[in-house]
Design goal:
The protein is built from 17 helices and 2 strands. The chain has helices at about 1-25, 25-45, 65, 75-80, 85-100, 105-115, 120-130, 135-145, 155-160, 170-185, 190-195, 200-210, 215-240, 245-250, 255-260, 265-275, 275-305; strands at about 55, 70. About 75% of the residues lie in helices and about 0% in strands. The protein has a two-stranded antiparallel sheet with strand order 1-2. It folds into 2 domains: about 1-70, no CATH class; about 75-305, MetI-like fold (Orthogonal Bundle), CATH 1.10.3720. It is globular, with a radius of gyration of 26 Å. It is an all-alpha fold and about 300 residues long.
Length: about 300
């Protein structure tokens, strides 16, 4: 009892000393935090003022303050557009399919890596899995185009002459599969790290009791990463509308536009190529609002299913 009370009092003293030190040297902390705060304000919050042009007929000469206010005209124009449903469905399909196929892969990789006993072999496999993450998106798209071209390795292997990049029905598979290859290994890092916290004693006890691999994962390893998986799923589901523009645009061709034209590429074409800044900003803002709504809904659903635990 005395040892416990001494430990508690020692922790309180250490906490009190830390707080006193921070209060005494608060200027030092402000100096270190100031650059980060300034960069965040300048590059994250100040640009939010540009959202106003979504409600204006923006004129670069007159600026934001001098441009004509039109309210929700550009939102109505986008929502009433005959292509609105196509862009929305393409974006949702690409994101939802990517989430359903891509989200479990890093978790499975983490479980598999955790079964490897040899540290040397494990590190080599991890190196191979992590390496694609450091390949540029444009380089990745170039590799995909070469592999799937008429004279590429895939057609040579299948003994066919199919140009996969011109097939709308193949675009989503190409986009999602290449994304899994590039990012699954890197995404498994946090799950692998969390699995290191799994109790080895419980695992050994499960083995002694005759538990198979799946029972060991369910009883010992899954509880160690459950909270991280839930948080990552909520964040991923909240970004359903935020499909990567660079990759979709780089893999896009005139013949696969039926499935490759998403909201992000549409905003780019309207804003930068056509110079319709107000309309493209309105479409981008609509996309962001939908993302926020999805994030809130998914968080509430997960809370109800997970005993009140969420973001």
């Amino acid at each position: 009892m005395s040892k416990h009370s001494n430990k508690t009092s020692s922790e309180k003293n250490n906490r009190g000393n830390t707080i006193a030190y921070i209060q005494r040297h608060w200027q030092l902390y402000c100096i270190f935090l100031l650059p980060a705060l300034l960069l965040t304000i300048v590059f994250r919050y100040v640009p939010m003022g540009g959202i106003l042009i979504a409600f204006q007929r923006y004129n670069p000469i007159k600026g934001i303050l001098g441009s004509e206010w039109v309210g929700f005209d550009f939102f109505e124009r986008f929502l009433s557009s005959p292509d609105f449903s196509k862009y929305l469905i393409n974006t949702l399909k690409l994101s939802i399919y990517g989430l359903l196929w891509g989200f479990p892969i890093p978790i499975l990789l983490a479980f598999l890596l955790n079964r490897i006993q040899s540290t040397g072999i494990k590190k080599k496999i991890q190196l191979v899995l992590y390496m694609p993450n450091f390949v540029s998106v444009i380089v990745l798209c170039g590799i995909v185009r070469i592999f799937l071209s008429v004279t590429g390795p895939v057609n040579l292997l299948l003994d066919t002459k199919i140009n996969f990049m011109t097939m709308p029905e193949a675009f989503r598979t190409i986009y999602i599969a290449s994304g899994i290859w590039q990012g699954a290994g890197w995404a498994s890092i946090m799950y692998t790290a969390a699995l290191s916290n799994a109790s080895q004693e419980l695992k050994e006890a499960a083995v002694i009791d005759g538990a198979n691999i799946f029972q060991q994962i369910k009883a010992v390893e899954w509880p160690a990463i459950k909270d991280i998986v839930i948080i990552q799923f909520i964040l991923s589901a909240g970004n359903i509308m935020s499909v990567g523009f660079e990759k979709a645009y780089a893999l896009q061709t005139d013949l696969n536009l039926a499935s490759s034209e998403i909201i992000a590429t549409y905003v780019y074409k309207k804003g930068l190529l056509d110079g319709d800044y107000s309309f493209s900003t309105a479409v981008g803002l609509f996309n962001t609002i939908v993302n926020i709504i999805l994030l809130i809904i998914v968080n509430q659903v997960v809370k109800k299913m997970n005993e009140g635990k969420g973001l």
